[in-house]
Amino acid sequence: MLNMPKVVSLVPEVTFKAINVSLTKGWEFKFMENYTENDVILGCRDADFLLAKSGFSIKMSRRIIENIPSIKLIQMDGVGYDTVDIQAAAEHKLPVSNNAGQNAGPVAELTIATIVALQRQIFVSDRDIKNNRFKNIREQLLAKGLAEIQDSRLGLVGFGAIGREVARFATMMGAKVSYYDVFRASQNIEEEFAVEYKPLDEILAFSDIISIHVPLTERTVNLIGEREFGLMCPGALFINTSRGEVVDQEALAAVLESNYLGGAAMDCISPEPPPPEHPLLNLSPEARDRLLLTPHTAGVTRGAFRRMLLNALDNMNRVAKGEAPRFVVNGIKQSRMIS
């Protein structure tokens, strides 16, 4: 059992206050907002835990990990863990934990919302009506025909907590859902969520809507590129609420310009924030109407972020009491020695 555990938090103190999360009594917290690798190394001297950020942060690199020997656990503030060198952490027997499943509901909500927004052309309609083009846009949409989720073929790439929540929502709305994941779910899970497993290429070729829900790893960088877009049905919708690096940005811009896709929604792009010359920010007006962007906010509602920070504090408390950490992402199931 640790006496007065010390936490180095890369999450600002104002964030805890804003979502009404109390710091653990009797613990010492050191907050860092603007930091370099050297700052993190120095800040972690004699500390027990490092609360790291899932996004918009310098990477917790091998150099950092090699120089924070007192840290028992790197705890993420969110679900993503691509800002940590998890291999280096594993080599140094340092567990890295995330907050798996804590934001599944909000991400699934936004996924469904963007599907409906693209199917019904909500944002184009709003813009045109405000520009005194009510009759024009109504006639245009009715002539084209508007889709709905019921009877749509939804293909999920990734079937973890978020993918399953999307499946649950979509099947309630009448969609026919299939999925691909490197780890196929059990028959019981497939029956519970009313989904069918298919290889990735079949998901891409036979779905009206493709939604991406995979973590960012070496295997998933540019998982969806020119070849994969070419396999999709003409007019298909493409949704990405995972990580921008999973999608080849140039390939997405090109397929939007070609009018092959019916539309795309991206909650995350690469890099973040995007530079002015980013291909998705320089589309033609017609292609721009087929793209919906949000600023990587699918899983950071107040409620979700509160749940994630509460889970993070609870997980560090488990380790402080000598228990094994939960939601470990790098295979190290036991924390380093507690003195």
TrEMBL record:
User: Mind telling me which SUPFAM superfamilies this protein's record contains?
Assistant: Formate/glycerate dehydrogenase catalytic domain-like (SSF52283), NAD(P)-binding Rossmann-fold domains (SSF51735)
Provide the D-isomer specific 2-hydroxyacid dehydrogenase NAD-binding domain boundaries.
113-298
What Gene3D superfamilies would the database entry show?
Answer: NAD(P)-binding Rossmann-like Domain
Q: Which UniProt keywords apply?
A: NAD, Oxidoreductase
**Domain D-isomer specific 2-hydroxyacid dehydrogenase catalytic per the UniProt entry, residue ranges:** 26-330
Q: Which GO terms describe its molecular function?
A: NAD binding; oxidoreductase activity, acting on the CH-OH group of donors, NAD or NADP as acceptor
For this protein, the record's PANTHER family field holds: D-ISOMER SPECIFIC 2-HYDROXYACID DEHYDROGENASE CATALYTIC DOMAIN-CONTAINING PROTEIN-RELATED, D-ISOMER SPECIFIC 2-HYDROXYACID DEHYDROGENASE FAMILY PROTEIN (AFU_ORTHOLOGUE AFUA_1G13630)
Task: Give the protein family.
Answer: Belongs to the D-isomer specific 2-hydroxyacid dehydrogenase family.
Name the UniProt record assigns to this protein: Lactate dehydrogenase-like oxidoreductase
